[in-house]
Design brief:
Elements (H helix, E strand, L loop, with lengths): L14 H4 L5 H4 L6 H19 L13 E7 L2 E12 L3 H20 L2 E14 L10
Parallel strand pairs: 2-3
Antiparallel strand pairs: 1-2
């Protein structure tokens, strides 16, 4: 009995094997460029900044976080630069942001994130907090 092309009886294996392509494991690896990982980290930092530091994004608020990444064999080292509110518990907020960004980048890219360095660019006061000089 002959089967027609495209019928369920044709080829027990995946279509790649029938076409003569190597198995997926032999084809290579997915490489995510540093700049792509940095953009993912910057977005994750912005989210963490608004959640952990209680800094809503706005015109007079903090500047967007900046991120840089260095990807090496399945892991990435991140460096973040961002604004934080004043007053705040800086060490605690930084630790939470670092953890949140590391988890999010690992989740989205599949890379290990052993190190996240965070630099506080400036401290931002609330818009209504600056009353000027009192005489």
């Amino acid at each position: 009995m002959k089967s027609r092309p495209g019928s369920p009886d044709e080829g027990a294996g995946p279509p790649a094997a029938a076409a003569g392509l190597p198995s997926p494991a032999e084809r290579g690896a997915t490489v995510i460029p540093d700049r792509v990982v940095a953009r993912i980290a910057a977005r994750a930092a912005r989210t963490a900044q608004s959640q952990r530091a209680a800094l809503p994004p706005g015109r007079d608020g903090p500047a967007a976080p900046h991120a840089s990444a260095a990807v090496h064999t399945g892991s990435v080292r991140l460096h973040l630069t961002m604004d934080l509110p004043y007053p705040t518990d800086i060490p605690q907020v930084c630790e939470r942001i670092q953890r949140d960004v590391a988890e999010r980048v690992a989740q989205l890219t599949g890379l290990k994130v052993p190190e996240v360095t965070l630099t506080v660019r400036r401290l931002v006061t609330a818009a209504g907090a600056s009353r000027g000089r009192v005489r």
